[in-house]
């Protein structure tokens, strides 16, 4: 079998615009007038106190207990970029480090390399060593065993460097309610969809997002 | 079917038909063994815990002379603890996150343990919905395992094809259940399914997978990396590893969901070699079988919040007892034991398939060389997230 021809025959499968996002990985919005509703994290039994005032993306684990008061809008652009580094505009190398995940963030991050998303067309690449990395993507809750590996990976990176917290666990402790990790870019979601991840990464290097 | 030892959970040994308290100590360490002491010229090579090569953090201590692997031990660096001192609904959210890629399997085993403890049976629609989720998870997992194997071989076109298909399966799941990893889908009372499952798309995905799969099996260079690599003992293997060795062993035949699987006509997939190649063959067959099973389940989109638990909920205060739930996750037996004391959960024991597969991986690495390691590792479909979890 000629794999080259086989690949060519499949045609271009990379998406020009985001087209298929799972609703419960996008922004949630209150239906009606929130101030008059009286709903709170307590009244909705929100396990991570992600309600009030408004919906707090960084804490949400999408358990759906707030439904139908809060409903998905389909907006995947939830990442918060606190620091933009334009020097990474042409080439942005990422070193992922899993400090205590359930594996879902790992898979979603992996899927930004799928043909549908193709991270390389945006000048974004994975690297296997922190010494070649522009950004450290940290996923999961900070576990005791991974703390030293995280510190050493960060110290091994050259300047300038970004820290990107991916997923509710890294950002706020998620359902496990552990410590939050300070980061230049936070990508909410449990796990964040490949669209949300790519959008935040593009904006972190000075782009308009996706 | 003959009773088989599956593995250790807490202070108990789980067999295919019962749970038994441990009386004597068995070797269940994640270390391979070849003689004692370190021979002259050998060294310990530490791989991980943070590496770009593996999808999760894992630390391996490899005793080697440079190429030949003498022993290997694996450490789960990311140890997580889950508190059981909370409501069942909140605990369920943590159980989903023991292993995101097998979330439906974990939740089903946990809820089945709970239901067995209380002696209640959910409506049939709920059970069918859980089976469908597990089979969808199996398809995604087997595609991902095959993709990882091709990636390690530098087989770029099939690797990209397979990653495309994994994403497509995630989209099918996301459209039907609202979430790509079944988070927030299952509750104590049932499950939420927003849209009808897109079976034609799922069939196209599986057809395309089979085309890629046949192509990679034609490639001698690729299958040479798998054949004879990671030979495991038949006696203590589970899941695809057991079936690769030709065993008629599958929790779908005798686990908690066996009745449903029996009714819809489940066919076990087997091969005749207990190596990484045999495990790939089993996964290839299981993808098609899972699609066929999902088609026969005929689950419908709706929110299953039936009131079947209302009467039961009044009786649970003061209840003391325990129950075991066992399902066939994509990587093999997955079991939970839930103990209840006076209406609240007092004990949760977990036996994830990765714990057993990790032991099999270590024992099968002795005598292999470095280049075999990633292929053998991926062939078991191990997720370290579920190995390093403790319920306290």
TrEMBL record, chain A:
Residue span, NADH:ubiquinone oxidoreductase-like 20kDa subunit domain: 102-202
Cofactor list: [4Fe-4S] cluster
UniProt similarity note: Belongs to the complex I 20 kDa subunit family.
InterPro entries per record: Complex_I_20kDa-like, NADH_UbQ_OxRdtase-like_20kDa
Alphabetically ordered keywords of this record: 4Fe-4S, Iron, Iron-sulfur, Metal-binding, Ubiquinone
Source organism per UniProt: Candidatus Marsarchaeota G2 archaeon ECH_B_SAG-M15
A GO molecular-function annotation: metal ion binding
Short name of any one Pfam family annotated for the protein: Oxidored_q6
Protein name: NADH:ubiquinone oxidoreductase
TrEMBL record, chain B:
Claim: Iron-sulfur is one of the keywords in the record: no
Record InterPro entries: ComplexI_49kDa-like, NADH_Q_OxRdtase_suD, NiFe-Hase_large
A molecular-function term among this protein's GO annotations: quinone binding
UniProt keyword terms in alphabetical order: Oxidoreductase
Top-rank taxon, per record: Archaea
SUPFAM superfamilies associated with the record: HydB/Nqo4-like
Pfam families: Complex1_49kDa
Domain annotation NADH-quinone oxidoreductase subunit D: ranges: 168-297
PANTHER family, sorted: FORMATE HYDROGENLYASE SUBUNIT 5-RELATED, HYDROGENASE-4 COMPONENT G
Official protein name in the record: NADH-quinone oxidoreductase subunit D domain-containing protein
Lineage per the UniProt record: Archaea, Candidatus Marsarchaeota, Candidatus Marsarchaeota group 2
């Amino acid at each position: 079998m000629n794999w080259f021809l086989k690949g060519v025959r499949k045609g271009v499968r990379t998406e020009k615009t985001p087209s298929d996002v799972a609703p419960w990985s996008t922004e949630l919005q209150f239906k009606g007038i929130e101030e008059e509703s009286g709903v709170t994290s307590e009244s909705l039994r929100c396990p991570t106190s992600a309600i009030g005032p408004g919906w707090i993306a960084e804490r949400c684990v999408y358990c759906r207990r707030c439904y139908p008061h809060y409903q998905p809008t389909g907006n995947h652009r939830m990442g918060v970029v606190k620091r933009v580094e334009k020097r990474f505009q042409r080439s942005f190398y990422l070193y992922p480090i899993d400090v205590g995940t359930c594996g879902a963030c790992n898979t979603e991050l992996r899927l930004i390399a799928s043909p549908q998303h193709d991270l390389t067309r945006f000048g974004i690449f994975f690297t296997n060593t922190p010494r070649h990395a522009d950004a450290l993507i940290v996923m999961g809750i900070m576990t005791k065993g991974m703390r030293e590996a995280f510190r050493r990976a960060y110290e091994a990176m050259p300047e300038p460097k970004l820290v990107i917290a991916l997923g509710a666990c890294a950002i706020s402790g998620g359902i496990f309610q552990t410590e939050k990790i300070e980061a230049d870019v936070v990508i909410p979601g449990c796990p964040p969809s490949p669209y949300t991840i790519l959008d935040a990464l593009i904006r972190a290097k000075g782009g308009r997002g996706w | 079917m003959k009773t088989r030892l599956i593995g250790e959970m807490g202070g108990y040994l789980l067999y295919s038909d019962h749970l038994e308290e441990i009386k004597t100590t068995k070797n269940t360490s994640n270390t391979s063994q070849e003689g004692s002491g370190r021979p002259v010229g050998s060294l310990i090579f530490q791989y991980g815990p943070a590496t770009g090569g593996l999808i999760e953090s894992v630390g391996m201590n490899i005793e080697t002379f440079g190429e030949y692997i003498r022993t290997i031990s694996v450490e789960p660096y990311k140890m997580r603890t889950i508190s059981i001192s909370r409501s069942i609904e909140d605990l369920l959210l943590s159980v989903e996150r023991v292993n995101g890629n097998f979330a439906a399997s974990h939740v089903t085993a946990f809820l089945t343990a709970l239901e067995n403890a209380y002696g209640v049976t959910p409506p049939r629609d709920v059970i069918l919905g859980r089976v469908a989720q597990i089979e969808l998870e199996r398809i995604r997992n087997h595609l991902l395992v095959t993709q990882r194997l091709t990636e390690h071989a530098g087989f770029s076109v099939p690797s990209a094809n397979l990653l495309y298909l994994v994403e497509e399966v995630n989209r099918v799941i996301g459209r039907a259940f609202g979430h790509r990893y079944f988070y927030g889908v299952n509750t104590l009372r049932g499950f939420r399914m927003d849209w009808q499952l897109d079976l034609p798309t799922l069939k196209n995905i599986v057809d395309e997978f089979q085309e890629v799969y046949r192509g990679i099996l034609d490639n001698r260079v690729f299958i040479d990396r798998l054949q004879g690599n990671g030979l495991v003992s038949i006696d203590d293997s589970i899941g695809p590893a057991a079936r690769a060795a030709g065993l008629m062993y599958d929790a779908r035949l005798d686990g908690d969901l066996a009745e449903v699987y029996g009714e819809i006509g489940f066919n076990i997939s087997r091969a005749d070699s207990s190596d990484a190649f045999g495990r790939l063959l089993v996964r290839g067959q299981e993808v098609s079988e899972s699609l066929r099973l999902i088609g026969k389940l005929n689950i419908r989109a709706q929110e299953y919040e039936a009131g079947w638990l209302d009467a039961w909920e009044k009786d649970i205060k003061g209840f003391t007892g325990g129950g075991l739930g066992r399902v066939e996750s994509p990587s093999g037996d997955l079991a939970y034991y839930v103990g209840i004391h006076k209406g609240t959960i007092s004990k949760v024991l977990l036996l994830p398939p990765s714990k057993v597969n990790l032991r099999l991986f270590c024992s099968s690495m002795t005598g292999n060389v470095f280049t075999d390691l990633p292929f053998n590792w991926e062939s078991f479909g191990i997720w370290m997230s579920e190995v390093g979890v403790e319920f306290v």
